[in-house]
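Design request, tokens follow.
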């Protein structure tokens, strides 16, 4: 038997003893009442007064019944255990009710926090989408810039090539004019020397005229 059970047995026995003492007091009071009523009946008979017999009979009946019975220690033990269980049950109910209230409060706070988290996640997703769109735009612009750079580089190369061609054409034109001048000078010397006839001179002049015309056209193109 555990200490708690022994303590409970002692309390039950003490309660039984108290109940027996109380029962003895009640029976003692009943006997005292009987004595008083006997004396009163005797006095009333002496004085010739009537006495309420039913009330007197009730007192006699209580005396005949003896000391009022009391509950046993085991009964008191069961009663106390039941009361204790009832108190524990009530306490547990209060605790459960308290825990439920706390749980509801925590759930409310959780719902608020969960809502805030969802809103923050939505904002982060929106910002991320904006960042992605900006990166795509930047990437597209960078690609266009690269295309423009490539086009500019090709234009520079073509300009350089064209400049080289112009320079080459200018040099060729200059050389052609020099050749014409030398041809004219030689022709003049041949004419003065009388080494060629008129038909050869006309033929040479036509050639020189053609070269000069070609040189003039080339100069205009430059």
């Amino acid at each position: 038997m555990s200490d708690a059970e022994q303590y409970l047995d002692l309390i039950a026995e003490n309660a039984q003893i108290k109940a027996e003492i109380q029962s003895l007091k009640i029976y003692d009071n009943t006997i005292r009442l009987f004595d008083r009523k006997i004396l009163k009946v005797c006095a009333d008979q002496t004085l010739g007064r009537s006495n309420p017999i039913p009330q007197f009979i009730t007192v006699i009946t209580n005396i005949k019944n003896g000391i009022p019975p009391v509950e046993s220690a085991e009964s008191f033990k069961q009663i106390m255990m039941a009361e204790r269980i009832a108190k524990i049950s009530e306490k547990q109910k209060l605790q459960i009710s308290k825990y439920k209230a706390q749980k509801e409060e925590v759930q409310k706070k959780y719902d608020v926090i969960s809502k805030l988290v969802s809103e923050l996640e939505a904002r982060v997703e929106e910002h991320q989408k904006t960042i992605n769109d900006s990166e795509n735009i930047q990437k597209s612009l960078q690609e266009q810039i690269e295309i423009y750079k490539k086009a500019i580089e090709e234009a520079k190369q073509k300009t350089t090539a064209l400049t080289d061609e112009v320079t080459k054409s200018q040099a060729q034109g200059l050389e052609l004019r020099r050749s014409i001048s030398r041809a004219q000078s030689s022709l003049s010397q041949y004419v003065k020397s009388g080494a060629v006839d008129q038909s050869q001179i006309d033929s040479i002049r036509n050639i020189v005229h053609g070269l000069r015309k070609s040189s003039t056209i080339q100069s205009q193109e430059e």
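Comment from the thread starter after seeing the answer: thanks! The chain has four helices and no strands.
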